[in-house]
Known about the structure:
Layout: E1 2-3, E2 12-15, E3 24-27, E4 34-39, E5 48-54, E6 63-73, E7 78-84, E8 93-95, E9 104-111, E10 119-126, E11 133-143
Antiparallel strand pairs: 1-11, 2-5, 3-4, 4-11, 5-10, 6-9, 6-11, 7-8, 7-10
Amino acid sequence: SVDCSFSRGVCDWKQDADDDFDWNPADRDRGDGYYMAVPAFVGHKKDMGRLKLLLTDLKPKSSYCLIFSYRLAGEKVGKLRVFLGNKKTAPVWEENKGKDERWRTGKIEIFQGAGTTNNVTFESERGKGKTGEIGVDNVILISGLCPED
């Protein structure tokens, strides 16, 4: 497995230069490292912020599971989407409201067909709310299918 978390991960993260705002590091409650977040008040409604994970050395014709922690805290905070590769049309994962302030786990299966997926994009879309945040943390890539809960 590959640890792509932000505090000590070995992965290559890039801010998208063509979006409306950046993701920023935020301190974890317990004080052990940080996660990446977009506060609810950044930008204007429907503005986007994209954080791209560059994937190198993934073997073709094999499957991987991307596991990550996410949080959508606050009323009408917006949407969090995940895109694979350079396909910007349909997200492979989307969440648009948090039931509470808790962190949850997202899982995405990445099948390496003839064309390999060379990046994963976490996209935050600004909502109507003024409080809260969208956060992502503990991004891990493991080979094989995603485990059942």
